[in-house]
Amino acid sequence: MADDPRSMRERMLAGDLYIADDPDLHRESLHAQRRAQELNAMDPADAEGREALLRDLLGAFGEGSELRSPFHCDYGYQTFVGARTFANFGLVCLDVARVTIGDDVQIGPNVQLLTPTHPVQPGPRRDKWEAAQPITIGDNVWLGGGVVVCPGVTIGDNTVVGAGAVVVRDLPANVVAVGNPAKVVRTLDPEGGA
Question: Is cis: bond before 70, omega within 30 of 0?
Answer without folding.
Answer: yes
